[in-house]
Amino acid sequence: MHYQNNHNTHYLKKHWKKLFYPVAVAASLTSSFSWADTTIRMLHLEADPKVVAIWEQVAKDYEKANPGQHVKLEYLENEAFKQKLPTLLQSDQRPDIFYSWGGGNFQTRVDAGLLKDVTKEMKDIKSRFSEASFDAYNYHGKQYGLPYMVSQVGFWYNKSLFNKAGVDADNVVNWDDFLAAIKKLQAAGITPITTAGGDKWPVQFYWALLTMRQAGQQGIQDAIDKKGDGFAGKDFIKAGEELKRLVDLNPFQPGYLAASFGDSSGNFGDGKAAMQLMGDWNYLFQAQQSISGKGVGDKNLGWMNFPILKDGKGKATDTLGGIAGWVLTAQASPEAVQWLKYFSNIEMQKHLAKINMIIPVVKGADTAIENPFKKRIAQNIASSTWHQLFYDQAFGANVGSVVNDVSVGIVGESLTPEEAAEQVQEAWEFE
């Protein structure tokens, strides 16, 4: 999925001690522990070689300071990770630590007894993290892991294509403004939006954000609490109707229902569409997936928050995104707990933030962010009036898959807004 960058990997290895001297010092502090010879398996879905190179060097320093401990970083591609993880967790091949988005899936695994309670072990480093991010891995008062990064979903746009069509992003405030911009782009012969119906989850962002803008935080919470008509209520139908208004304009690229996330990001990176609704992680991915490998350069790249609905209850400062991190499986060793604590240090968070890989969760690490897009998104999250976790994570695997399916159903015109809302409510009633 990502391109290997040998130069960056060589640079990181060559300058590691300079960049991470405090990490090496921290490693020496753990060397007094006398652990038994053991292997710590950490399952992740990070494909970028620059990030993996950093993790591997941290692991090597840790192993050097802790003889007998071996950290094994294991990779699974995003969709394969989602599909295989449930089976892995029930097998004797389960990892000690694995990547987690929190939310409903995380809570279900706690209820099933699959995760390790590390409340006592993590108490001494709780103050290291922002409260919201740390609590994302707390359930019924118990801690099961640590956060790693936060994210936000919004519209990435191509400034040159906007200029060609006479669209001013600063004037796109509400949904009607957005639909008017779609028409202007089409009139200029430009494909307005690229999306990925084949992977489904990118399309889910539209339904999720429109329901947030229409129902607002209290309306979403009422639906979760099964009050009134829940997800089949008027606000959720209205959100679907607004999505249908967009679909009726035929704004997407040819073949969008079969397109993958990589296809969609490549289209945007190649300048074949003016916008892509995606998370902050797409800053690098659209470049990696483009033919040139450079994508839409910083001079032509723009970011818009999702527009509001005129009569909606949601606020422009309500954000959708993720809080991603790591959890420990029930049989994880004390060594695995110690490694995760060590792994979650400010120096690594700062460096990853500086090279545009993450929006960090360790307090103070955000000062290392230099990229203006990442800075803006970090500020958006910091000032958010409500940060909603991705629906397909927040609502658990069963309901989340229905949300993905009905979103594609509306966009593919195989479901009405009413049918979509009813299907989500029906799925939620069985949770």
Please explain how this structure is put together.
With 431 residues, this protein is of the alpha/beta class. 48% of the residues lie in helices and 14% in strands. Strands 1, 2, 3, 6, 7, 8, 9, 10 and 11 form a nine-stranded mixed beta sheet that branches. The protein has a two-stranded antiparallel sheet with strand order 4-5. Helix 4 (49-65) links the parallel strand 1 (38-44) and strand 2. Helix 3 (21-30) runs parallel beside helix 4 (49-65), helix 9 packs across helix 10 and helix 13 (261-269) packs across helix 14. Pfam families: SBP_bac_1. It is found in: Periplasm.
Number of DSSP strand runs: 11
CATH fold group of the largest domain: D-Maltodextrin-Binding Protein, domain 2
The largest sheet, given as strand count, sense and whether it forms a barrel, is: 9 strands, mixed
The value of Rg in angstroms is 22 Å
Low confidence ranges: 1-35
**CATH superfamily of the largest domain, called what?**
Periplasmic binding protein-like II
Shape: globular
